[in-house]
Amino acid sequence: MIRAVVALVALASGCASCGPKFERASSTAIRGTCPVTIPSHAPRPRGNPFGPSHFNYGNRYLRAHLHWRRGVLRAGTLPGGGSSAIVNPDGSIRAKLGWWRALDRKLIITGRRLDAPAPPLRAEARGDSGGAGFQASALTFPTVGCWRVVGRTGPAGLTFVVKVVRIGKR
Fold it and tell me: 81 in the Ramachandran plot: left (φ > 0), alpha (ψ -120 to 50) or beta?
């Protein structure tokens, strides 16, 4: 398995002379031809269950809880009966993802498939009033494959790559 350090850029709000802030946030693992993001640490639950220590990937401005194992999001019924993502009637795959943001700005989520042409990712952040703290979202991947997802809140950004696969029956 090839591992490489991924640097994330988070710009300080209103500080043109400060330059970008680089933070070591994760490593990548190649799954086939997909350089999936593997969080560098497990969440450190302390205090508020929606505070930054509960989110295992990100930087000081924006964090996400990447709950899929080894960078692979498996859609469908898992062996234990649960699911990490569902397969919609149109074949698209929908997964929930929690975010935490330090900035009082709206969360904008985009994404695109890296390994083949596909329509863009659809994302919903319901009830997003732009406040700092916890934000729930739903990501809809139009197809299986290797996907880059980008979250932005004001000048801060967070990027990760996930391999989306279908398992079992629909």
Answer: left
Does residue 15 carry a pLDDT above 70?
Answer: no
Q: From CA 2, how far away is CA 45, in angstroms rounded?
A: 30
Nearest to 111 by CA among 43, 64, 53: 64
Query: What's the pLDDT tens digit per position in 33-45?
Result: 899 988 875 545 5
Cα 156 to the center of its chain, rounded Å: 14
Give the amino acid at 145. Answer: G
* Token duo for residue 51: 């505070």
Residue 89 burial (CB count, 10 A): 6
Cα-flanking dihedrals φ and ψ of residue 43, to 5°?
Answer: -60, 150
Please give the C-alpha separations between residue 64 and each of 106, 119, 124, 160, in angstroms, as whole numbers.
15, 23, 15, 10
Distance CA(151)–CA(133), nearest Å, equals 14
CA torsion angle 115 121 125 130 (round to 10): 80
